[in-house]
Write a structure and sequence with these properties.
The chain is of the alpha+beta class. The chain has one domain: Alpha-Beta Complex (Cyclic Phosphodiesterase, Chain: A), CATH 3.90.1140.10. About 30% of the residues lie in helices and about 35% in strands. It has four helices and eight strands, in the order βαβαββαβαβββ. The strands form two sheets. A four-stranded antiparallel sheet has the order 2-1-7-8, with helices on one face. The chain has a four-stranded antiparallel sheet with strand order 5-4-3-6. It is globular. It starts with a strand and ends in a 5-residue tail after the last strand.
Length: about 180
Amino acid sequence: MKERYFIAVVLPQDIRAEVGNFKKIISEKYHAHHAFKSPAHITLHMPFKWESTKEEELYQSLIEITKGMKSFELALQNFGVFEPRVIFVDVAENKFLRVLRDKVLVEMGKRQVYNGEYKNSGFQPHITIAFRDLKKANFYEAWETFKNQKYERKFSVSGITLLKHQSGHWDEMRTFQFMGTN
């Protein structure tokens, strides 16, 4: 049976908790809850369908991606939007993150794993705190809460995570650590 998966950089627990507080504000004040369905993350490959009996093959492709990759520092910087529904924590430009994403797309392309819905979209890394269920009427008011708020954090990226959609939520299946030497 085909299941839904995606590939991401999942944030460390301390930053996840802070991002969780932003999600909580959105949830309580603006009644948008969908962002709670996944851990705080930066998407590297949008959701795709894969035969669950072939998960080991998927794991092998993710191991291939991590070969030669070294840990790198990533900075989070304030907030941004995709009008009129999405509010997010912004990610500072980072060439290593772009290289990682390119490796993910190439490796998944070898397995004919695509998500055509997003093929023409550029890569703007971000951490979503509100999206699909944030009503347009609440969007601008919610954005006022965050648009001038400062938020800056740095963390080390040392692997990628495969997430799987189960029981209405995205669960972390397995994290693949970078295998390069520092």
